[in-house]
């Protein structure tokens, strides 16, 4: 038998109703197995899922029938998860729930009020590393068009002679990713950086995003250098690496944020092939794209293969 609580919370000037439904067994065609709560408000569900994860209970949220479910994957952890939900109902503003969101690198404060716009919601769900790099790249591009192009290029370009690079200039192996030749190139890369980066930062950690970004960038640039020389710019090698990482890691894990359609993945590979065919009117760093993609796949395989069994896709 299920028990239903309806809780009215007053936060500031707004009244928000949270509907929490607890189940002892799977309900056919409604709540899936191991669903421990259903909320009218997505932010509340995210707060619970974050806190459960910090407590070592593998959990995620799922939208269903105008509600957001909180689901755990280990049946033996269901009783503990239910106790935590009851604690949340008793005191939803307890700082421990907000702190859990920060520990999982969720930059959005646990806000139980409805978002005013899709833009606000998108920004709240984006981690500070994702936002910071986006702002840095956009700012550098603006400064280059305001007369600082030569200064910025001299500071950040790939080494002209890789074998003679000094330790103090190792940063140049990655920094060409900060530079872009034109506005379409910039917008395309920044969109994909934001779309992919925020998923890794929110679902794994900002450090994992940083590691994947640095490794894919360095290997992509070194590969491009050995084939064509040092004159290249752009975040595209990193973007291909992040795309490959999210796509393959999503095949290993249960993370809904990582489920990229195979058709979209095929489109990215097709674009890579078109670049190598040399039929486009622009010059593309194709070897950087390929090396970034392969590096992302390798990192995703390593991370995905080492996942605990209960968090892997069946």
Automatic annotation (TrEMBL):
Record has 4Fe-4S as a keyword: no
Transmembrane feature ranges: 128-153, 173-195, 207-227, 233-250, 262-281, 287-307
GO molecular function per UniProt: serine-type endopeptidase activity
Signal peptide: none
One GO cellular component term noted in the UniProt record for this chain: membrane
GO biological process, one term: proteolysis
Gene3D superfamilies (UniProt xref): 3.30.70.2350, Rhomboid-like
Protein name per its UniProtKB record: Rhomboid family intramembrane serine protease GlpG
Organism per entry: Saccharobesus litoralis
Designated gene of the protein: glpG
């Amino acid at each position: 038998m299920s028990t239903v609580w309806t809780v009215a919370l007053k936060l500031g000037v707004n009244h928000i109703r949270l509907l929490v439904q607890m189940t002892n067994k799977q309900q056919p065609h409604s709540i899936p197995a191991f669903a421990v709560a259903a909320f009218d408000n997505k932010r509340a569900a995210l707060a619970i899922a974050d806190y459960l994860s910090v407590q070592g209970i593998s959990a995620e949220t799922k939208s269903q029938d105008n509600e957001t479910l909180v689901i755990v994957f280990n049946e033996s952890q269901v009783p503990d998860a239910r106790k935590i939900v009851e604690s949340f109902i008793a005191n939803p503003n307890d700082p421990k729930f907000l702190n859990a969101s920060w520990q999982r690198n969720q930059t959005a404060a646990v806000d139980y009020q409805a978002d005013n716009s899709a833009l606000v919601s998108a920004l709240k769900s984006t981690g500070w590393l994702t936002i910071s790099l986006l702002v840095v790249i956009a700012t550098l591009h603006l400064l280059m068009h305001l007369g600082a192009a030569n200064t910025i290029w001299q500071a950040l370009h790939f080494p002209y002679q890789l074998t003679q690079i000094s330790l103090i200039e190792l940063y140049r192996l990655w920094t060409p990713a900060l530079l872009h030749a034109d506005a379409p190139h910039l917008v395309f890369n920044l969109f994909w950086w934001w779309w992919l980066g925020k998923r890794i930062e929110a679902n794994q950690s900002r450090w994992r995003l940083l590691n994947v970004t640095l490794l894919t960038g360095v290997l992509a640039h070194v590969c491009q250098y050995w084939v064509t020389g040092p004159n290249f710019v752009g975040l595209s090698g990193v973007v291909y690496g992040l795309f490959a990482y999210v796509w393959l890691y999503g095949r290993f894990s249960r993370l809904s944020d990582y489920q990229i359609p195979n058709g979209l993945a095929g489109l990215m590979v097709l674009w890579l092939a078109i670049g190598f065919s040399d039929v486009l009117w622009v010059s593309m760093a194709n070897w950087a794209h390929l090396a970034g993609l392969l590096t992302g796949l390798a990192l995703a395989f390593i991370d995905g293969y080492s996942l605990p069994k209960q968090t892997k896709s069946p």
